[in-house]
Design a protein that fits this description.
With 177 residues, the protein is mainly α. It has seven helices and no strands. It has one domain: Arp2/3 complex 21 kDa subunit ARPC3 (Orthogonal Bundle), CATH 1.10.1760.
């Protein structure tokens, strides 16, 4: 059963993904935070996987896709962050949320840059080429980490404040309603 809280959570996830459509610095986007938030809060685990991935797909249709292998790496990293959200769901402490956000940033960095090296033609397919790819991506990682942490604070902190203000958004109220 979908209740008011679930509808509100879905709206938050979809809205945050749509924020990708607005101009922003490279890699300074809400994607990891949305995946983490969806995994931590959407009531049904299937919904937690489908809603963020579908919203991401919708925004990619508008923005365009990368090389197929890189696109797959992006979606795999996004799905893994949703799974991190399932871990956060068990205990939504600031330390656990922050750790998961940093882990999500690292996952995205490692997987997507490995795909850029493996499927692209910019870097030689050698160990040195892989290292060169990761080094060249470090400035983007700074933005990734800053965006992931900022949006994580915004989503998790904002929703915690909203739950205090509007009791209907609390889990126990949603279960009763």
């Amino acid at each position: 059963m979908v209740n008011s809280r679930a509808i509100f959570l879905i709206a938050i996830v979809v809205s945050a993904i749509l924020a990708r459509l607005f101009p922003h610095a490279p890699n300074l986007a809400p994607i990891t935070a949305v995946a983490l938030f969806g995994g931590a809060y959407l009531p049904d685990r299937r919904l937690a996987l489908v809603v963020p991935l579908a919203a991401m797909l919708f925004s990619d249709v508008i923005l365009g896709f990368d090389l197929p292998g890189v696109t797959v790496a992006v979606y795999v990293s996004f799905a893994l962050v949703i799974l991190l959200g399932f871990w956060v769901r068990q205990n939504r402490s600031p330390l656990r949320i922050g750790s998961a956000a940093v882990a999500g940033s690292l996952l995205f960095f490692v997987l997507t840059n490995f795909a850029v090296w493996g499927f692209g033609t910019i870097y030689p397919h050698t160990t040195a080429g892989l290292l060169q790819c990761y080094v060249a991506a470090l400035p983007f990682f700074r933005n990734t980490l800053a965006g992931d942490l900022s949006y994580t604070v915004l989503l998790f902190g904002g929703f915690a404040l909203l739950q205090r203000r509007f009791p209907i958004l609390r889990e126990n109220a949603a279960a009763a309603g």
